[in-house]
Amino acid sequence: MSNRLPIIGALLLLALALLNATFYTVDQRERVLLFRLGEVVAADLPPGLKLKTPFINTVVKYDGRIQTLDRGPVRYQTSELKNVVVDSFVKWRIADTRRFFVAVGSGDVNTRLAQIVNDLSRNEFGKRTVQAAVSGDRHEIMDILRQRANERAAEFGVEVIDVRIKRVDLPTEVSSSVFSRMEAERKRVAAELRAKGAEEGERIRAQTDKERTLLLANAQRDAQRVRGEGDADAAARYAAAIGSDGEFFDFYRSLEAYRHSLGTGRDLLVLDPGSAFFRYFDAAPAGGR
Predict the structure, then answer these.
(1) For the chain, what are the domain ranges?
(2) Pairing mode, strands 48-51 and 23-26
(3) Strand, coil or helix: what is 66?
């Protein structure tokens, strides 16, 4: 019995090998080709457990999901002969498994796709200015790249689902120069605005000083006029008072002279008591009030 164990083990291994060579599975995420003696007999088999003839049929599997080709930053030249750095990626998948196997086989499909997109991108950016490439025509460029890349990739069984531009930048050395020019331009504009502000301020101050001078002159003119009118009115009233009672006016003026001349304690007057200055000290004139 012990001599039969190696034989039984070998037979079991052979049976497992035959089963493994006879059955295979197809995942729903895979694109599968079935070969018979090197010739493709079936493509894009539906998912499930499949049967094949051992040592005659072989199976080749590819990833059928959507793949991403991240191209990274690539430099292109615009119509102005200025460089821009474009960072983009491509979404693709296998559309025709038989054609894909014939055209690509086990080669690197990403390299071929990158070359196609690179040629198309160089052509599209070469027809546009920096302004159009950075902002204006980005969506148009992506649509053109997707459509034309899909047409060329169909030759080897690949469908290009989308081409997306993540960003379009100027090269580092150009960006530094642009930022310097922008900074200088902003400083120039700021200096110009400050100069205009100072000029406007001087104009406003000059206008204000002029208006102030005119207001003061008008006010002094009006004050002089009002003062003259008041003096004229006072003179007229004095004249009217004098004309109505001359004797009372003389008496009033004499009292004013007494008030200002006597009683201060600082002056000494030597006058004749019979002088006209003291005529109202003795008695009122005849007929006076």
Answers:
(1) 5-61, 67-170, 185-244, 253-282
(2) antiparallel
(3) coil
**pLDDT tens string for the chain (289 positions)?**
556 667 666 666 666 666 666 777 888 888 888 888 877 888 888 888 877 777 787 888 888 899 999 988 899 988 888 888 999 999 999 998 888 988 887 778 899 999 999 999 999 999 888 888 877 788 899 999 999 999 999 998 999 999 999 888 877 766 566 677 788 888 889 999 999 999 999 999 999 999 999 999 999 999 998 998 888 888 887 777 777 766 677 777 777 776 766 666 666 666 666 666 666 666 555 554 4
Which residue matches tokens 């007229």?
Answer: 236
H helices of the chain, in order, are: 5-22, 97-103, 109-126, 130-131, 138-153, 172-244, 246-261, 279-282
Please report, in angstroms and rounded to a whole number, the separation of the first and last CA atoms in the chain: 179
Say which residue the tokens 């102005």 belong to: 80
pTM above 0.70, yes or no: no
Q: Which fold has domain 67-170?
A: Tetrahydropterin Synthase; Chain A (3.30.479)
Distance CA 122, CA 95 (A): 26
Question: Which residues make Cβ contacts (< 8 Å) with residue 40, sequence separation at least 6?
Answer: 33, 34, 98, 101
